[in-house]
Specification:
Elements: H1 57-60, H2 85-88, H3 113-116, H4 157-160, H5 185-188
């Protein structure tokens, strides 16, 4: 009788599992580009006029005049009156120590700038929002909003404009001495004595000496 067959060999031990792969490392997130409110290619943090409204950030500050969640320095319409800060500027038409760009009633006549807008009812070149319909700067019986020469210097408001040549916070069209040289605009007039393309009334050195 044949001997019994030997038992089959045991199955081979399973191969050990491969070592775990290291967790893949995700690439670092790409940071968003720096804010550039006026899209001039200069990040706000390096831009002295972040919103491009011609009013320096240092002057506008970090406040939020119209409470829209945008700081004035990056808000092209700081007072929310739908008139750009670049149009309103830093003059203080009504003398309330609030620059027009932050003043919802720039001329202090009780009618909000948002209502008066950029129209020019008397066609003198000065927006209604900057011409008071209750103030009469030159006491000639006509409100500034009706008066085409609000400071009675014989130079039309349209020629003088809303700039502030001497930096006294009085716009030229309301300032009887626009260049602050002590000679009244009515005397200097619109001639250009020194030929520098600046009328004498706005030129503190009219004769170029």
């Amino acid at each position: 009788e044949n001997p019994p067959a030997p038992p089959p060999p045991p199955p081979p031990s399973p191969s050990p599992p491969p070592p775990p792969l290291d967790d893949p490392v995700s690439p670092p997130p790409i940071p968003p580009p720096p804010a550039d409110s006026d899209s001039d290619g200069i990040p706000n943090e390096a831009d002295p006029d972040s919103d491009g409204d011609d009013v320096p950030d240092a002057e506008e500050g970090t406040g939020d005049t119209d409470s829209d969640g945008i700081p004035d320095a990056t808000d092209p319409d700081s007072d929310g009156d739908n008139i750009p800060d670049a149009t309103e500027g830093t003059a203080d038409t009504d003398g309330d120590n609030v620059p027009d760009a932050k003043d919802p009633d720039s001329d202090g006549d009780g009618t909000p700038d948002a209502e008066e807008g950029t129209g020019d009812a008397d066609s003198d070149g000065i927006p209604d929002a900057k011409e008071s319909n209750t103030k009469d700067t030159d006491s000639d019986g006509l409100s500034d909003a009706e008066d085409t020469d609000s400071d009675s210097d014989n130079i039309p408001d349209a020629a003088e404009g809303t700039g502030d040549t001497d930096g006294d916070n009085i716009p030229d069209y309301l300032d009887p001495d626009s260049d602050g040289d002590g000679i009244m605009d009515a005397e200097e007039g619109t001639v250009d004595t020194d030929g520098d393309n600046v009328p004498d009334a706005k030129d503190p050195d009219s004769d170029g000496d």
